[in-house]
């Protein structure tokens, strides 16, 4: 699940006349135009509804389909409701609290209507951008709906958290599904209870709703099994033109990877090169967006010889490629090629997210084999202990894994749109509903944003590799227990004694900070622990010039909470801290290396062809 790295809300203002008051907008209404637009809206809506019904029917009960998730949500929330009903006194007390809050809200609303200045019963949490429009507070009608929603949602969350007789796993699933339901029920998502939508509808004679229905039809047409709500203007960017433009050459490729060597920008470079292993569930250019946001360009400019693994977007022909194949043909093959290309033994490795999990597995494999070519490792939001792996664990049990494996067996891979849907469900208030409001209710095309373009550029996952990853890591947590084997070698993380830079991010919903920290304690050498502000993406892609998020450093502690309490906060990006750490471990300076003059002749210019293959 990926955070979008933005603090502002999507969809501020209407297409035309969005800043008018409701009364001013009504005065300018053209009722004939409004009526015509409503006819157009209902006509388009009928076609869209028919298309959605056909899509939902064809998806059946496959994992992560609407039908399967609604059924699972009803089952889980029903078990909590049953436990609450079985305790009449608790149920009565909970109902009494809710009705008391409603009565308080009604009383204060009446007093406010009579002109009295009253304090609200409930206010949005800091950072909740759904209710930023002034109309939510200035207009009593909308203010009432906002407060009623906040009262109800907080009451439901409190009841779910505190109902007795519910096991921890069921309670966590119930909280997750409750979050989906409550996010969907927000009055901000209703055209009749959102002041910005009402104002815009009156000002444009409902043209916004007609445009929104057209955008919905467009999204349906471009989606595969699941509806993907557009989060950005996909026509605004092109890989190799606007993004992934750091100069370099593809010097090697096999079935799984292209290896890019970037052109130097300094006369001298550190002797030991850097190889980056990004996640294969996304395109690598999250680390090479626009030049001012590119970690790749930053590393090159700091005097490192940088290589990037660009994973293939696999099809059914690669269905049987395993996690072990990704280690041998991916990371270890890249190490071998760089050794030969530069004529040296040692390399540095960086692994991001699942690329870091693969790197840790490869390091344990190398330690068992006596292979010392990897001199240092940098892990970016990478888990190796999945005990506290967060809400993604909700999707992984024996029944769901079996269904998922059966579905992947049909095609030989998992469609990238399904993983994207799961990631978005981890943060529906930020990654789903703001775009529903902006696109379909306000009728505005989403704003061009490079990070969200990357987010939409999903990749497939080969069946064998993905099934192994979900079952062996998430479900069984075998790597952290010392039970995992690759190539007949048992993996022991404590045998990894090289210097490690471990980055976790404070608001990560995919690789929670506590989970990454827990895994860092399993290594056998020195680990520099760094926590960045923000989440899984924005916390990593945080260039120094932006001065947007801070980071924390500290010595290892017995628990994550103890580490956070003692950690030192540092303003600005973690990138300079990491560069200084790596330079101290990368040997003397040597003349810069030209990627065109090595043992491997260039195949094509960066970013290469693998990254341009679409899902």
Give a written overview of the molecule.
The protein is an alpha/beta fold. The chain has 2 domains: 22-222 and 428-452, no CATH class; 248-415 and 460-612, Alpha/Beta hydrolase fold, catalytic domain (Rossmann fold). The chain has helices at residues 22-27, 31-59, 66-85, 88-113, 135-138, 140-162, 168-185, 195-203, 207-222, 295-301, 323-342, 354-369, 398-411, 416-425, 428-431, 433-441, 450-456, 463-475, 513-520, 560-566, 575-584, and strands at 248-253, 257-262, 268-270, 274-277, 306-311, 347-352, 374-380, 413-414, 461-462, 485-486, 489-490, 500-505, 527-532, 551-554, 568-570, 589-591, 604-605. Strands 15-14-13-12-7-6-4-5-2-1-17 form an 11-stranded mixed sheet, with helices on both faces. A two-stranded antiparallel ribbon has the order 3-16. A two-stranded antiparallel ribbon has the order 8-9. β4 (274-277), α10 (295-301) and β5 (306-311) form a beta-alpha-beta unit. α2 (31-59) runs parallel beside α9, α11 crosses α12 and α13 (398-411) packs antiparallel against α18. It starts with 21 loop residues before the first helix and ends in a 10-residue tail after the last strand. The model is unreliable at 4-18 (pLDDT under 50).
Which range best describes the helical content: under 10%, 10-25%, 25-40%, 40-55%, 55-70% or over 70%?
40-55%
* CATH-defined fold name of the largest domain: Rossmann fold
Q: Please count the helical segments.
A: 21
- Structural class of the helices, strands and pairings? alpha/beta
Q: Roughly what is the average pLDDT, rounded to an integer?
A: 90
N-to-C span: 17 Å
Question: Judging from the principal axes of the Cα atoms, what is the shape?
Answer: globular
CATH domain class of the largest domain: Alpha Beta
Count of structural domains:
2
* Biggest sheet: strand arrangement: 15-14-13-12-7-6-4-5-2-1-17
- The fraction of residues in strands falls at 5-15%
**CATH superfamily assignment of the largest domain?**
Alpha/Beta hydrolase fold, catalytic domain
Q: Please give the CATH architecture of the largest domain.
A: 3-Layer(aba) Sandwich
Total E-strand runs: 17
What value does the Rg take, in angstroms? Answer: 26 Å
Summarize the main sheet.
11 strands, mixed
Spans of at least 5 consecutive residues whose pLDDT stays below 50 are 4-18
């Amino acid at each position: 699940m990926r955070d979008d790295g933005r603090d502002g809300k999507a969809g501020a203002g209407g297409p035309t006349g969005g800043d008018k008051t409701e009364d001013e907008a009504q005065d300018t209404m053209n009722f004939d135009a409004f009526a015509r637009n409503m006819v157009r809206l209902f006509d388009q809506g009928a076609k869209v509804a028919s298309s959605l019904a056909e899509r939902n029917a064809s998806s059946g009960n496959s994992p992560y389909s609407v039908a399967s998730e609604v059924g699972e949500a009803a089952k889980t929330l029903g078990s909590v409701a049953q436990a609450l009903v079985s305790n009449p006194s608790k149920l009565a007390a909970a109902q009494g609290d809710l009705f008391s809050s409603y009565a308080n809200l009604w009383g204060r609303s009446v007093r406010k209507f009579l002109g009295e200045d009253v304090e609200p019963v409930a206010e949005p949490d800091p950072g909740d951008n759904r209710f930023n429009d002034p109309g939510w507070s200035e207009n009593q009608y909308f203010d009432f709906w906002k407060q009623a929603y906040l009262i109800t949602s907080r009451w439901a969350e409190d009841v779910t958290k505190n109902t007795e007789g519910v096991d921890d796993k069921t309670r966590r699933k119930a909280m997750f599904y409750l979050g989906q339901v409550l996010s969907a029920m927000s009055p901000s998502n209703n055209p009749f209870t959102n002041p910005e939508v009402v104002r815009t509808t009156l000002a444009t004679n409902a043209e916004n709703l007609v445009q929104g229905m057209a955008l919905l039809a467009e999204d349906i047409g471009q989606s595969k099994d699941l509806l993907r709500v557009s989060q950005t203007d996909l026509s605004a960017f092109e890989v190799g033109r606007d993004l992934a433009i750091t100069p370099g050459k593809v010097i090697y490729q096999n079935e799984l990877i292209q290896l890019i060597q970037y052109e130097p920008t300094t006369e001298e470079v550190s002797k030991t090169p850097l190889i980056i292993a990004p996640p294969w569930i996304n395109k690598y250019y999250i680390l090479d967006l626009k030049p001012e946001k590119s970690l790749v360009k930053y590393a090159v400019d700091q005097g490192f010889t940088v290589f990037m693994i660009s994973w293939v977007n696999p099809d059914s022909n690669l269905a049987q490629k395993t996690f072990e194949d990704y280690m041998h043909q991916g990371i270890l093959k890249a190490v071998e090629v760089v050794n030969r290309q530069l004529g040296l033994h040692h390399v540095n490795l960086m692994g991001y997210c699942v690329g870091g999990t693969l790197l840790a597995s490869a390091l344990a494999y190398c330690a068992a084999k006596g292979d010392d070519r990897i001199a240092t490792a940098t892990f970016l939001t990478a888990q190796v202990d999945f005990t506290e792996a967060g809400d993604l664990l909700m999707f992984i049990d024996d029944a769901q894994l079996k269904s998922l494996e059966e579905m992947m067996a049909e095609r030989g891979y998992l469609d990238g749109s399904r993983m994207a849907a799961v990631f978005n469900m981890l943060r529906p208030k930020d990654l789903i509903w703001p775009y529903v409001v902006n696109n379909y209710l306000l009728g505005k095309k989403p704003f061009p944003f490079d990070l969200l373009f990357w987010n939409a550029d999903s990749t497939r996952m080969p069946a064998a590799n993905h099934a192994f990853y979900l079952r062996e890591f998430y479900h069984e947590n075998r790597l952290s227990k010392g039970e995992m084997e690759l190539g007949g070698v048992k993996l022991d993380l404590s045998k990894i004694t090289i210097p490690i830079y471990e980055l976790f991010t404070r608001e990560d919903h995919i690789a929670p900070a506590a989970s990454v920290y827990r895994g860092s304690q399993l290594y056998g050498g020195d680990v520099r622990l760094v926590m960045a502000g923000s989440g899984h993406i924005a916390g990593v892609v945080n260039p120094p010039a932006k001065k947007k998020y801070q980071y924390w450093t500290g010595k290892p502690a017995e628990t994550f909470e103890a580490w956070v309490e003692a950690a030192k906060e540092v303003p600005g990006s973690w990138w300079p801290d990491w560069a200084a750490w790596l330079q101290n471990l990368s040997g003397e300076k040597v003349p810069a290396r030209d990627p065109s003059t090595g043992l491997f002749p260039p195949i094509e210019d960066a970013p290469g062809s693998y990254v341009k293959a679409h899902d």
